[in-house]
Amino acid sequence: MAQLPPTVQAREMRDRARQIFQHALESATIDKAFQRHVHCERGVLRICEDLYDLHSYTRVFVVSIGKAGHSMVKALAAQVGDSLEGIIATPHEPESQERGFRYFRGGHPTPNSESIRAAEAILKSVAAQNASSLVLFLISGGGSAVAEKPIDNEISLPDLVATYQTLVLFGAPIAEINAIRKHLSAIKGGRLARAAYPAQQVSLLVSDVPDNTPDALASGPTMTDSTTVQNCYAIAEKYGLLKQFPASVSELFRRHALEETPKSDDPAFQRSRWWTLLSNQSAIEEAGIASTSQGFAVEVDNTCDDWEYARAADYLLARVRELRKKVSRVCLISGGEVTVKVTDGGVGGRNLQFALACAEKIAGENITVLSSGTDGIDGNSPAAGAVADGTTLDRAKAKGLDPRAALARFDAYPFFDALGDVIITGPTGNNLRDLRILLAC
Questions:
Q1: What pLDDT, on the 0 to 100 scale, is given for residue 177?
Q2: Rounded (5°) CA angle 329-322-420
Q3: Residues 261, 183: contact at Cβ < 8 Å?
Q4: What topology does CATH give the domain 30-279?
Q5: Helix 229-239 to helix 247-254 angle, to the nearest 10 degrees?
Q6: 435 pLDDT exceeds 90?
Q7: At CB < 8 A and 24+ separation, what contacts does 123-126 make?
């Protein structure tokens, strides 16, 4: 490979990075996860280590919320059959709908009127269940926005949207964002589980949050909440959010009037179980398998999860350079998400921004950086992410592109699109956070 012309070698490395990412996408799928962990035979449903005799329940009701809302129901129906009924709230219109389900196309990354209707329908439906009912919650990333109802009727939909936008644009880690979302919501932070009590409840999770904080997924509608109102007040003060929130929300904070979410001693959780079927770790493992098969020595480093994108770029590039001193071909895989505080209105997302930040730092080096979201969507762009390498700046200069200006404007998508280096998958129906794949030789 070292004998190839530099431009050919760079193109080959970009292709290899794409192949590794594509393998992770195709292997860490919802269908395969359900085939491994969910099975139904003669009316007995096995979910991981638990068995449920469906004949013993007067009603089985399914609630599926998030970007994988339709995909998870489809995978469940493949194991259980088409006798299921319930509600699906997802941001994308599926090509076909599952029989027996009501669909709501909620907003993402901010709620819309369908999000409100979805939450109201879900709350009404689960409240109608009793102790002889089984409620299956299928929860995936994006659920925070696609099904939502404010805890206080004074908070209007525009106020709710403004609050979400403030939280996202300030670049706070997802755990802090979700802490506030939980305490402003009628369904998050375990309140949906409380609404479904006393039914038997089982939650199946396709996670886009750190593995050690599963209650952050979709803001934890069915799980005990580890965050408190005091956390919310501290986060708001840390980022100066009261000046940015709409008056209806700021007033709740100023009066310290937020209501506490259900904790582990709440009766709602006495008949509840939770199982993570897929997570970012699943995608990392599959990317590692693909990298090894291509002859790379693989290292995984998730240290920079929730770091600011520029700091994460410096850290990971330093790591891959250090690793390259020890082996001739190295693949550094980093899972999780970086944060971006948007100050201008370009077209892009955190993965595109991270890749562009790396481009200038690796100019002239045999390093390739891919950063992409497993949901197929990066910010407000049509891309999932992008790939950069040591030739990116020279190729951009030849096309009259200004990488520094694009970075400052948070306008990375047009830059990479002009180079043919965007990653386009379309919505994947899955969401396992982001992958950063750094190759060096």
A1: 87
A2: 55
A3: yes
A4: Rossmann fold (3.40.50)
A5: 120
A6: yes
A7: 123/149, 123/186, 123/187, 123/192, 123/195, 125/61, 125/63, 125/86, 125/87, 126/61, 126/63, 126/192, 126/195, 126/196, 126/199
Q: Identify the three-state secondary structure at position 35.
A: helix
C-alpha dihedral (140, 76, 105, 261), degrees to nearest 10: -40
**Strand 200-206, strand 86-90: pairing:** unpaired
The more confidently predicted of residues 209 and 75 is 75
The residue ranges of every structural domain in the chain are: 6-27+281-440, 30-279
Continuous H helices in 240-325: 247-254, 280-293, 309-324
Distance CA 253, CA 162 (A): 15
Cβ-contact 377, 384 below 8 angstroms: yes
Q: Which residues pair with 113 in a beta bridge?
A: none
Per-residue pLDDT at 3:
56
What is the per-residue pLDDT across 56-104, written as a single tens digit (0 to 9) for each?
Answer: 999 999 999 999 999 999 999 999 998 999 999 999 889 899 999 999 9
Helix (H) / strand (E) element for 367: namely: strand 367-373
Q: Where are the alpha helices (DSSP H) in 49-173?
A: 69-80, 113-127, 143-146, 157-169
Report the predicted TM-score, pTM, of the whole model to 2 decimal places: 0.84
Type of residue found at 25 = L
pLDDT at 252 over 60: yes
- C-alpha to C-alpha distances, 222 to 61, 270, 273, nearest whole angstrom: 15, 12, 9
The pLDDT value recorded for residue 133 is: 98
Note the pLDDT of residue 2: 47
Summarize pLDDT for 120-138 with one digit per residue, the tens.
Answer: 999 999 999 999 999 999 9
Q: Determine contact, residues 288/17, Cβ cutoff 8 Å.
A: no
Res 1 pLDDT > 50 = no
Which residue stretches of 303-402 are H helix? 309-324, 350-361, 392-398
User: ∠ CA(337), CA(361), CA(441), 5° rounding?
Assistant: 90
Q: Which CATH architecture fits 6-27+281-440?
A: 3-Layer(aba) Sandwich (3.40)
Contact 348, 408 (CB under 8 A): no
Q: Are 205 and 218 in contact (CB under 8 A)?
A: no
